[in-house]
C-alpha cells in the first residue's frame, strides 16, 4: 500500500519539508508532500529519523577509569625489528663499506615520556671496543638526503626530520653533515602510532588583526562585479588613494582602475562602517526555470525582518465545472469566521483560516482570488503582476478536460505558477477521475501519485467530500514555497478589481508586503489619494491590512486598472507630483504609439533588446485535426538558435481571452480557417497583439520560419573588393614609406585592408593615404597605378599583395 510523504511527517511529528529534504538527500524521488512511496522505501526513509539515544551513564566508581584517546592514530603495519647493536656514545663512528657513519642509539621511551631518551654509554671510560662487523643482510642504517641545505642547526626539541619515524630525533652530527654523509641508525624505536610523540615546540603565531564587527543596522552598499577601486571609493564616500593605502597595508596591489575580490571589498567596506553585497549579474536571461518561488527582498529588508505570509490562491477551470460552488464551500470551511451579522459583499478576494495539518493548534490563513474568468488573471500578468502563488485547476470528473480547461492550464503554465488539480464532481454517477489524470498527463501535467509533481485531489462541492484535504494540500504546498514578506514597512501590492460606486472610486487591493493603514498616501499608476477606509469581504472596516490580505480601498481620485501596482509615499504632495509625472509620460507615449506592436515582420526590430530568442504563438483552427497538424509542423522546425513556444492551441474562434494571453506572453496569434469575434480587433489593437489568418498551412509555416530567423542577429561577412600588387617602395622625407602599387583586379578603396606576402597575412589595418599622382582619391580601379600609405605599417616589399575588403551584414538563417 503506498505511503504519502505527509503521512510519514505526521507519524514522525515533523514537517513535510523536512521529510522531503531527507528524501532528496537519500536519492528518493519525492517532490511534493502528496508524493507516494512504496512501503519498503517509506520504512527506509523513516529509519533515518530514528530518535537520538540518550547518553549512557558514567561507569560506577568501582571500575577503573577508561583511558580516552584524544586523537587515535591510524593503525600502521608493524615494521621488522632492527638489528641489535652495542650501545655507543652519540659521537661514535662506525666503519661501513659506504664510509664512516654516526651512530645514535635510543632506548624505548617510558610510558609517560615526553621525548626520546638518549642512552648513556655503558662502557667504562676509555677507548670503546670496536663494534662487531655487520652480517650479510643486516640493516645498518639509512641515508637521509635533505631536500635543501638547512639554514641553521635546529635547536634541541625541534620536530623530527622529514622521513624520520615518530619518536626519533636526528643525531647532532647528522644535522651538520652534508649530502651523502647524513646517516643515522634506528634502535629501539617504538612502532608508529604506539607510544607518545614528543610535542613540537609552539611556533610564534602571526599577529592577527582584530575582527571588525558591524552593527545590525549598518548601511548596505552594493556593486556588480568586477568591483573597481574607484567605484567602491565613490560608494564609500572616500578618496581612492585612501583605499589604495589600505590595500597596500594588506599586501594587495591595485590601482584606481583595477578590480579587487569580493572578500577584500567586504573588508574595506567594514573598515568604514558599511556592509558590502555583490550584485548578481543576470544569467540565462529569458530561460524559464523550474517554478521555484524566491523570497523577494526589497531595499532595506533583512532576512530577520521577513515573516511568513499566507498563500494567494486563484481558482480556474472550464465553465460549469463547479468553480463557484467550490469557492462557496471553501468560504463556509472558514473555522475562524466572525459574527454572522456582517454584510457579505463581493470584493474579488477573501481570506479564510484553516487548521495547519502538521502544526496542531495553529491556524493557517489562505487568501482566495474570486476574480471571474481568466481576463483579470491575464490583465494582471500582462502588467508584470504575478500576484498568485498557487493555481487550483478545477476539472469535472464526468466531463474531463475541456477547451477552457486547457486555456486555464496555458495561463497557469505561462505564469510559471505551481498547480493543484481539483477533480470535482466525484459523486457523479459518470465520474471518471482516472480519465482526467490521463488527459492532463498528455498535456504535461503528471499526477503526484504517478511520479509527477502536481497533486490531484478528488473533491465534491455538493457533498463537501475532499474539501478539507484540498485545503491541506494548499497549506503543505505553500510551506514548500516558504512565502515571506516584511510587514513592518510601507505597503506595496496590486489592484485586483476596481470600479466606480456611488461613494466614489473603489479598488480592491492585495497587499504583497508591508502593512496598509488608514490615512496612508497611496499612489496607483496615474491615480493617487489618501486611504479613507479599508473594508473586508464581510463589510467590516479595518484599521490596517498586512501581507497577503485583500481589502477594498476608498479614497483614490480615479479608477485604476487591474494589475497595476500601488505603493505608499510620505505624504499627499509627493503622491500627487508623482502621479502627475506619470500622467504626462503616458500622454507622451500615447502620442507616439500606445503600445509597441509585435508582428511577424518586425520581430527583429521590436525584440532587438531582448536576450530571449523565443517566438511565442497562440494557434486557433477550425478542427482538432488542423490544430494537431499545425502544432506538429511547427514543432518540426529545428533551430538551435531560436526557440518556438506554442503557449496555447485550441479549436474555435479567436476570442478576447486569446488576445490577453498573447499580450501577457508577448506573442502572436495564428488562425487557420477560423474567424475572429466582433470585439477582438479593438482589444488586439489596444493590447498591441498581431493576429494572422491563413488558409494554406505551408504559407503559415514559411512565415513562422521567417519570423524566427528575424530574431537572430545578422551575420557579418567579409567581401574582398580588390587587390593591389606592390611594385616599388618609396621613402618619404618626413618619415615613413609609401608603396607604389598597380591594381591587379577589382578596385582599392579607402578603408580596411589586409597585407599578404605569399600565403601569409602580415598585417590588417586601414589605408592612411591613397594617391593617384599628386591627388588624394577615395578609390583606384584595376589597371591603374597608385601610392598607398598604411597606418601603422612600413615594412613593404616588392611583390606584397594589398587586399581591400569591406564587411556586410547578412540576414541569418535557421
Spans of at least 5 consecutive residues with low confidence? 62-74, 76-98, 101-121, 149-209, 281-298, 336-344
Q: Would you give the CATH topology of the largest domain?
A: Rossmann fold
- List the strand order in the largest sheet: 13-14-12-15-16-17
Which class of secondary structure composition applies to the elements?
A: alpha+beta
* C-alpha end-to-end distance: 52 Å
The pLDDT mean sits at 75
The biggest beta sheet, please?
A: 6 strands, mixed
Instruction: Specify the number of helices.
Output: 18
Percentage of β-strand residues: 25-35%
Work out the helicity level: 10-25%
> For the record, what CATH class of the largest domain applies?
Alpha Beta
Characterization of the model:
Helices cover 23% and strands 26% of the residues. The chain has 814 residues and is α+β, with helices and mostly antiparallel strands. It has six domains: 3-47, no CATH class; 219-278, no CATH class; 307-485, Rossmann fold; 492-592, Elongation Factor Tu (Ef-tu), domain 3 (Beta Barrel), CATH 2.40.30; 603-710, 3-Layer(aba) Sandwich (Rossmann fold); 716-810, Translation factors (Elongation Factor Tu (Ef-tu), domain 3), CATH 2.40.30. Helix 1 (5-12) crosses helix 2 (16-25), helix 5 (229-236) packs across helix 6 and helix 16 runs parallel beside helix 17. The model is unreliable at 62-74, 76-98, 101-121, 149-209, 281-298 and 336-344 (pLDDT under 50).
Amino acid at each position: 500500500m503506498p505511503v504519502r510523504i505527509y503521512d510519514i511527517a505526521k507519524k514522525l511529528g515533523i514537517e513535510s519539508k523536512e521529510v522531503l529534504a531527507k528524501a532528496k538527500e537519500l536519492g528518493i524521488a519525492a517532490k511534493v508532500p502528496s508524493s507516494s512511496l512504496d512501503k519498503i522505501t517509506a520504512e527506509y526513509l523513516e529509519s533515518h529519523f530514528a530518535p537520538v539515544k540518550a547518553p549512557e551513564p558514567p561507569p560506577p566508581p568501582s571500575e577503573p577509569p577508561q583511558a580516552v584517546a584524544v586523537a587515535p592514530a591510524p593503525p600502521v603495519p608493524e615494521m621488522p625489528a632492527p638489528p641489535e647493536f652495542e650501545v655507543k656514545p652519540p659521537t661514535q663512528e662506525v666503519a661501513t663499506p659506504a664510509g664512516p657513519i654516526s651512530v645514535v642509539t635510543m632506548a624505548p621511551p617510558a610510558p609517560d615520556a615526553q621525548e626520546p631518551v638518549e642512552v648513556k654509554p655503558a662502557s667504562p671510560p676509555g677507548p670503546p671496543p670496536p663494534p662487531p662487523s655487520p652480517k650479510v643482510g643486516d640493516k645498518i642504517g639509512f641515508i637521509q638526503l635533505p631536500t635543501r641545505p638547512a639554514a641553521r642547526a635546529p635547536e634541541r626539541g625541534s620536530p623530527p626530520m622529514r622521513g624520520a619515524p615518530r619518536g626519533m630525533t636526528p643525531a647532532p652530527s647528522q644535522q651538520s653533515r652534508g649530502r651523502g654523509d647524513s646517516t643515522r641508525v634506528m634502535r629501539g624505536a617504538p612502532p608508529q602510532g604506539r607510544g607518545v610523540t614528543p610535542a613540537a615546540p609552539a611556533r610564534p603565531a602571526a599577529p592577527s588583526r582584530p575582527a571588525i564587527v558591524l552593527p545590525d543596522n549598518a548601511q548596505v552598499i552594493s556593486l556588480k562585479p568586477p568591483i573597481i577601486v574607484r567605484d567602491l571609493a565613490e560608494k564609500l564616500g572616500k578618496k581612492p588613494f585612501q583605499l589604495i593605502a589600505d590595500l597596500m597595508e594588506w599586501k594587495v596591489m591595485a590601482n584606481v582602475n583595477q578590480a579587487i575580490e569580493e572578500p577584500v571589498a567586504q573588508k574595506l567596506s567594514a573598515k568604514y562602517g558599511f556592509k558590502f553585497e555583490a550584485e548578481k549579474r543576470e544569467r540565462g536571461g529569458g530561460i524559464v526555470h523550474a517554478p521555484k518561488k524566491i523570497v523577494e527582498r526589497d531595499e532595506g529588508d533583512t532576512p530577520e525582518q521577513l515573516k511568513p505570509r499566507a498563500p494567494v490562491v486563484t481558482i480556474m477551470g472550464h465553465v460549469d465545472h463547479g468553480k463557484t460552488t467550490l469557492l462557496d464551500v471553501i468560504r463556509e470551511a472558514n473555522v475562524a469566521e466572525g459574527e454572522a451579522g456582517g454584510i457579505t459583499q463581493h470584493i474579488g478576494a477573501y481570506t479564510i483560516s484553516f487548521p495547519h495539518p502538521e502544526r496542531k493548534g495553529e491556524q493557517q490563513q489562505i487568501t482566495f482570488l474570486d476574480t471571474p474568468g481568466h481576463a483579470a488573471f491575464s490583465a494582471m500578468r500582462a502588467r508584470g503582476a504575478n500576484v498568485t502563488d498557487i493555481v487550483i485547476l478545477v476539472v469535472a470528473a464526468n466531463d474531463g478536460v475541456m477547451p477552457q480547461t486547457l486555456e486555464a492550464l496555458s495561463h497557469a503554465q505561462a505564469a510559471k505558477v505551481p498547480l493543484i488539480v481539483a477533480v470535482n464532481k466525484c459523486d457523479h454517477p459518470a465520474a471518471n477521475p482516472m480519465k482526467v489524470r490521463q488527459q492532463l498527463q498528455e498535456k504535461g501535467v503528471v499526477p503526484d501519485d504517478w511520479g509527477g509533481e502536481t497533486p490531484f485531489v478528488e473533491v465534491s462541492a455538493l457533498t463537501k467530500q475532499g474539501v478539507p484535504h484540498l485545503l491541506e494540500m494548499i497549506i503543505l504546498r505553500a510551506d514548500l514555497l516558504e512565502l515571506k514578506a516584511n510587514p513592518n514597512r510601507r505597503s506595496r501590492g496590486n489592484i485586483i478589481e476596481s470600479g466606480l460606486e456611488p461613494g466614489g472610486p473603489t479598488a480592491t487591493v492585495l497587499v504583497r508586503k508591508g502593512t496598509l493603514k488608514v490615512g496612508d498616501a497611496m499612489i496607483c499608476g496615474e491615480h493617487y489619494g489618501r486611504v479613507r477606509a479599508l473594508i473586508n469581504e464581510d463589510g467590516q472596516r479595518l484599521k490596517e491590512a498586512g501581507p497577503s490580505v485583500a481589502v477594498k480601498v476608498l479614497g483614490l481620485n480615479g479608477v485604476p486598472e487591474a494589475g497595476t501596482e500601488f505603493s505608499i509615499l510620505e505624504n499627499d504632495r509627493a503622491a500627487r507630483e508623482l502621479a502627475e509625472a506619470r500622467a504626462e509620460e503616458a500622454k507622451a507615449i500615447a502620442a507616439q504609439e500606445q503600445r509597441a506592436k509585435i508582428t511577424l515582420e518586425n520581430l527583429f526590430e521590436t525584440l532587438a533588446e531582448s536576450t530571449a530568442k523565443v517566438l511565442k504563438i497562440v494557434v486557433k483552427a477550425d478542427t482538432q485535426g488542423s490544430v494537431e497538424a499545425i502544432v506538429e509542423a511547427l514543432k518540426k522546425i529545428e533551430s538551435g538558435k531560436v526557440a518556438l513556444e506554442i503557449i496555447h492551441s485550441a479549436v474555435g474562434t479567436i476570442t478576447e481571452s486569446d488576445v490577453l494571453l498573447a499580450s501577457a506572453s508577448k506573442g502572436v496569434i495564428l488562425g487557420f480557417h477560423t474567424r475572429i469575434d466582433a470585439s477582438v480587433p479593438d482589444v488586439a489593437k489596444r493590447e498591441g497583439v498581431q493576429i494572422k489568418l491563413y488558409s494554406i498551412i505551408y504559407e503559415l509555416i514559411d512565415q513562422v520560419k521567417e519570423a524566427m530567423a528575424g530574431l537572430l542577429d545578422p551575420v557579418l561577412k567579409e567581401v574582398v573588393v580588390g587587390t593591389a600588387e606592390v611594385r616599388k617602395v618609396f621613402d618619404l622625407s618626413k618619415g615613413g614609406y609609401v608603396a607604389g602599387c598597380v591594381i591587379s583586379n577589382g578596385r582599392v578603396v579607402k578603408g580596411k585592408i589586409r597585407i599578404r606576402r605569399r600565403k601569409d597575412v602580415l598585417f590588417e589595418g586601414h589605408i592612411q593615404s591613397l594617391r593617384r599622382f599628386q591627388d588624394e582619391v577615395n578609390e583606384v580601379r584595376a589597371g591603374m597605378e597608385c601610392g598607398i600609405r598604411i597606418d601603422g605599417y612600413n615594412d613593404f616589399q616588392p611583390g606584397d599583395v594589398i587586399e581591400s575588403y569591406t564587411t556586410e551584414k547578412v540576414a541569418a538563417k535557421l
